[in-house]
Prior knowledge:
By secondary structure, the protein is an alpha+beta fold. It has twelve helices and eleven strands.
Amino acid sequence: MIKRNLRSRLGATALAVLTLAGTAACGATAHEAAPRAAVVADHRGPRTTVRDDLRAVFDAAGVHGTFALLDVSSRTTTVVDRRRAETPLVPASTYKVPHALIALETGVVKSPEEVIPWDGTPQPYPEWEHDMTMRKAVQISNAAAFQVIARRIGLKRERQWLHRLSYGNEQTGDIVDRFWLDGPLKTSAIEQTRFMERLAALRLPASRKNQLLVQDIIKQESKDGYTLYAKSGWQNAPNPGTGWWSGWVVRDHHVYTFALNIDVKNDADAAKRATVSRELLKRLNVLPTT
């Protein structure tokens, strides 16, 4: 009804893009000056603030990519390179976050401390060629361990849980242990922030206990008045592909969820996923600068 009324009054006129000067991005205080930002009304979800001035952070690191930040309190999403932030890409090891939850919910893994056996296949990284707990497999991003877990879950339950969690495009294809590594599963940076918002608030359709366990697995640090949760990903590792860093920050009782993806050409670029994300979180006044 609202859309029909708008059409009748405005015809084919598009919604205006408002350019605001002196309005800080997510987390900025009122007295802090900020570069000009385009604010776009979005009736499908949180309003979006475009901060393409922050492309300079990517440029300084010598990488190309996007960043999305959702301020849960203000319902504002801040993006760098909006088109790329809305583009679905293969999630790679960031899928270990919902995957660990699915493993616990289905009972194929009883706890984060359960040891997942190495299946004996050669791996691109020697540290993956060991039995290890699911917790450790998440922390070192062991794809081989989660391929074992995926085979335990099976395609039918993977599909059911992707739909239940509304994760990305919910596609698995026919290969149970590769769909998050090669596709067809895809998600965007903006979609990642909204999934992380629900996990941070314990609002996923899963037990509170298991959501808390997954939160604990991806907890990075808690200091200086904030707590950081994050998970990395590298599609096509160790070859060129898409690198991810996604999670959330809790600071002063506020929650900010985020997702970065960049083009990764080598190990040096992979190391920049976290450093670029941290710099952007500082520039947006989510992490302390000192």
